[in-house]
Amino acid sequence: MTMARPALDPELRELLADMPLMSRLDRETLAQLRQLPSTPVDSLLAHRKVDRREITVPAKDGARIRLSVFSPAHVDSTAAAAPCIYWMHGGGMVMGDRFSQLDIPLEWLDEFGAVVVSVDYRLAPEATGTTLVDDCYHGLLWIAEHAAEFGVDPTRIIVAGASAGGGLAAGLTLLARDLGTPAIAAQVLICPMLDHRNRTTSSRQYSGVPGVWTGEMNAFGWQAVLGDLTDGEVPTYVSPTLADDLSGLPTTYIDTGSAEVFRDEDTDYATRIWAAGGQAELHVWAGGFHGFDALYPHAHLSATARRTRTDWLARLLR
């Protein structure tokens, strides 16, 4: 019997009809996907007055982590320090790079004069366990320690990410809370990948059918990250839903689609933040599939979702 699923937004359904979809992911397919060209960052910067710096910082194990730093060009040296958006890209924890979905935080550079820092964390299955979130943490720690060098206000650092990057942003925020540094003003979790167990109603609804990101693809991504770890060994910083205590987190924005695999774990995470006395804003966009606003930013629902996210940041940063 076919499982009932929320209908797609009509405009998005029409756009998605022209996109090749998969239901499963394996190592051979992953190798092919990794051969696809990276996001052409030069075209994203062509119409913007932006200074770009490429730096490397040490990871926990001594490896070098690449960071791309994008700052508004020609800023008056007497101007107030800028907010910082620390960006973690999506890709199921197994693909993508620091330029993936970069158009999202660059809109906040345009809107708020924010400095955007995007981290090239190592990918699974080559990197496993806490390596990915540790890479993100040490990149953020370095930026916070060098905030003055980049004209960043260390009290206005916002961590943000989409999909796997949203999950890493959530894990990074938990880690920073527990270690007491650096200070994070807010977290923006866009359709975040939060729960390795992959057993919610929405994960079952979007298994067994082709899609942008399915339950089977999700299981592959998590297995790549966790390797031989058993359920009882999975760190909460890797699978943030496992955290017993969600108190003491910065104000949080979470959005997701009604027609996607992460809908229920994302909704639950917001609910548990509220239960712990925290502040979270949750949007479940009716008819949105996974990553809809990144794939088709000019669709009406996508533009609404992106504008709503930016309006939330405006209230936070004013």
How would you characterize the overall build of this protein?
Helix 4 packs across helix 11 and helix 5 packs across helix 6. It contains eleven helices and eight strands. The chain has an eight-stranded mixed beta sheet with strand order 1-2-4-3-5-6-7-8, sandwiched between helices. The mean pLDDT is 96. The radius of gyration is 18 Å and the shape is globular. It has a single domain (10-35, 48-317), classed as Rossmann fold (3-Layer(aba) Sandwich). The chain is α/β, with parallel strands linked by helices and 318 residues long. Helix 4 links the parallel strand 3 (82-88) and strand 4 (115-120). The longest helix has 18 residues, at 300-317.
What would the CATH topology be?
A: Rossmann fold
Integer-rounded radius of gyration = 18 Å
Topology pattern, helix = H, strand = E: HHHEEEHEHEHEHHEHEHH
Q: End-to-end distance, in Å?
A: 51 Å
Shape: globular
Low-confidence stretches: none
Major sheet size, sense and barrel closure: 8 strands, mixed
Helix content: 25-40%
* CATH superfamily descriptor: Alpha/Beta hydrolase fold, catalytic domain
What structural class do helix, strand and pairing data support? alpha/beta
Quick one: how many beta strands? 8
Number of domains: 1
* Secondary-structure arrangement, i.e. CATH architecture: 3-Layer(aba) Sandwich
- Under CATH at level 1, the class stands as Alpha Beta
The fraction of residues in strands falls at 15-25%
Count of alpha and pi helical runs? 11
Strand order of the largest sheet: 1-2-4-3-5-6-7-8
Average pLDDT metric: 96
